[in-house]
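Researcher: I'd like a structural prediction for the single chain below. Treat it as a standalone chain; there are no partners to consider.
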Amino acid sequence: MKRVVQKIQSFQKYVDCWWYPPVMAILAAMDHFVIVLPVDGMLVSSILISPKRWLRLVFAFTLGSALGAFSIGFLVHWIGVEVFRDIWPSMFDSSLWIWMEDFFKAHGSIVVLLSAMSPSPQQPAVIITALAGGSLWPILPMLLLGRFLKFLVVGFITSYAPEKIGKLWGIQREIHQFDDEQK
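Model: Treating it as a single chain, here is the predicted structure.
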């Protein structure tokens, strides 16, 4: 993890280049598959380096993160619930799963929206929604909206009140790393 953070930090010297936001979007999407990239920290430190570009970075991270999460759901849906039933048959026969399946068919997109807005990963909500067998297309706008709202708040505070950002979602460590590098 330390090497990943160091590589990202060395890459951030290019934050003012035209290609930086699309590359960050790709990294934010990849995070849903590898789950080691500190996306919130990457957004915050990128904005701290270039505060005037905060909205462009928010859009890039939103798009990448939402499409990455949707890709996980699409992949699970494409593989099919039958494959997972073969691997974990007792899970899918439990009363808890039956309740969750009904709940996520009815309310999955709302759960995805709430998880996308929160500091917790949204992959579990997306995966369970995909396994429940409902349509995935309603969750894409929820992912976009939820991630946009989250990153908009984080980006705005980072750009206009950077001293307050450490209190949001426990990203104090990334702030200190950035401060140490700037000295």
